[in-house]
Amino acid sequence: MITLNTDFTFTEVKLGNTETVTEKNDSLVEVSEMTAQDAVEKSSALSDPKRENKHGKELRRLDDLLLDAVDETLRQVFREEGVKVIFHYFENKCHLKRSEIAKKPEYFCACLQRMLSSAGPMVEKMILKNLYSKLGLKFEEEKKGYKFSDYIKELREKVGLLDE
Questions:
Q1: Looking at residue 157, what is its pLDDT?
Q2: pTM to 2 decimal places
Q3: DSSP for 12-33?
Q4: Is 158 left (phi over 0), alpha (psi -120 to 50) or beta?
Q5: Does residue 11 contact residue 22 with C-beta atoms inside 8 Å?
Q6: Closest residue by Cα to residue 20 from 47, 45, 2
Q7: What is the C-alpha to C-alpha distance for residues 131 and 125, in angstroms, rounded to an integer?
Q8: Order of strands, sheet of 2-4, starting from the edge strand that comes earlier in the sequence
Q9: In 28-43, which positions are buried (b, 16+ CB within 10 angstroms) versus exposed (e)?
Q10: Where are the domains of the chain?
Q11: What is the mean pLDDT of residues 140-152?
Q12: Strand, helix or coil at 1?
């Protein structure tokens, strides 16, 4: 089955019963496997109105925007092949999946700095600028003592105010 969104930039292809290939703007984003049990659990969790509220939707939106900003920034700096190497390194050496970046920003930064050394903070700043731009906010990079995860935490606290 092939699914396209309304602007035709996102494609999801189901291969057989267990694999899903996800593409965005003609770039492979994810190949995932799930059992029928996983599919049922995920779809029921998403459709349960008791579990879904406005704040939860906004946090998911922020998480998605953060992942988009990470992907876009890394592609700008390292091109497609470099991004594949980076995510492979994260998964195999740091045990951090792409989907976990939004939930573990401190660990993401540690992995980035482990891989890129002194270039890590510069890439973090570029990601934050991209994310703030997506949210229509001005990035204030001179906040004393702020790290990447502090900016993300602050955005999580503000997220309820952004969409009202």
A1: 87
A2: 0.63
A3: EEEETTTEEEEEETTEEEEEEE
A4: alpha
A5: yes
A6: 2
A7: 10
A8: 2-4, 10-15, 19-24, 27-33
A9: ebeeeeeeeeeeeeee
A10: 2-47, 54-162
A11: 89
A12: coil
Q: In this structure, what token pair is assigned to residue 61? A: 């939106």
- Please tell me the predicted confidence (pLDDT) of residue 162: 52
User: Is the pLDDT at 141 greater than 90, yes or no?
Assistant: no
Q: Which of 71, 76, 139, 129 is nearest to 102 (CA)?
A: 71
- Better-scored residue on pLDDT, 127 or 25: 127
Q: Please say whether the beta carbons of 11 and 3 come within 8 A.
A: yes
Structure tokens at 34: 């799930």
**Residue 75 · residue 115 · CB < 8 Å:** no
Q: Is 25 a residue whose pLDDT tops 70?
A: no
Q: Does domain 54-162 have CATH number 3.40.50.720?
A: no
pLDDT at 14: 45
Nearest to 98 by CA among 14, 22, 19: 22
Upper half-sphere CA count for residue 10 (Cβ side, 13 Å): 5
